[in-house]
Specification:
globular; 77% helix; 270 residues
Length: 270
């Protein structure tokens, strides 16, 4: 992979990690469609770290308030004493299902990740999830009104995003809507919930990269991917939060259906 392909990969990751159209699906399908080099999981994880930086910068006030509230709650022996501390523990508990399933079945998901047809099929499933989320939308709750069933339900839904083509943000936002959150709150919680998952995957990948040795020639590739994903990811967080105030998910559902269905039709005809 050259620098231009690395920048393109970072752009795709930054744009699709937060828009509900599946970053993993695009990282599998786009190289297959345009005949590009298939990125390895280490490079994909570096791209995820770029989007993690975008989340940390955009939500740094929220994350700092959550951290302080958790520490104060533990010190005062009231871990659920404030809305920020409760949100922090909801994020922790909501992150457990995907982490456990991902570690237990890591080999299986790595194998599935190499199939563009599988990614295209699950893009169709993402379209279905978005439509269901929009159709059942009755959300009036904000994040401060969340409860344990909300956190567990959204966390369990996040496990589906281990399949390429299932959008992590799309599935968790749809679950949040189903649990009664309003659009913006569901999206905000989805982004915050993604921090541990993205961080964990990125740290594991960095460990693999550093233990592999002789990474010097690849550093420009990694850096280009990381920075592009961070800049584009930040812009897409801001865009989606504004978009959801007055617009629906249908446009994203149509896009996923066209991309996934179009690729399956193409492979069937050829």
């Amino acid at each position: 992979m050259n620098i231009l392909e690395a920048i393109f990969l970072g752009f795709i990751q930054g744009a699709t990690e937060f828009l509900p159209i599946s970053s993993s699906g695009h990282l599998v399908l786009i190289p297959a469609i345009f005949g590009l080099s298939q990125p390895d999981l280490s490079l994909i994880a570096i791209a995820h770290l770029g989007t993690l930086l975008a989340v940390l910068i955009y939500f740094w006030r929220d994350l700092w308030a959550i951290l302080i509230a958790i520490l104060q709650g533990l010190q005062q022996r009231e871990p659920m004493g404030s809305s920020d501390s409760r949100l922090g523990w909801y994020i922790v508990v909501g992150s457990i299902p995907a982490a456990v399933i991902g570690l237990l079945f890591e080999g299986f998901f790595e194998e599935v990740f190499g199939s563009p047809q599988v990614a295209a099929f699950f893009l169709l499933m993402t379209a279905v999830l978005l439509v269901i989320g929009e159709r059942v939308l009755t959300g009036v709750k904000n994040i401060a009104q969340m409860n344990w069933p909300d956190a567990i339900s959204v966390g369990l839904t996040q496990t589906f995003a281990l399949f390429p083509g299932i959008s992590r943000s799309g599935s968790t936002i749809a679950a949040g809507l189903w649990r009664g959150l309003d659009r913006e709150s569901a999206a905000r919680y989805s982004f915050l919930l993604g921090v541990p998952a993205i961080l964990g995957a990125g740290l594991l990948s960095i460990f693999d990269i550093t233990t592999a040795g002789n990474i010097g020639p690849l550093l420009p590739i990694y850096l280009a991917t990381f920075l592009t994903a961070a800049v584009v990811g930040y812009a897409c967080i801001a865009f989606l939060l504004r978009w959801l105030r007055n617009h629906s998910f249908y446009i994203f559902a149509v896009y996923c259906a066209l991309l996934g269905g179009g690729y399956l039709l193409y492979t069937f005809l050829t």
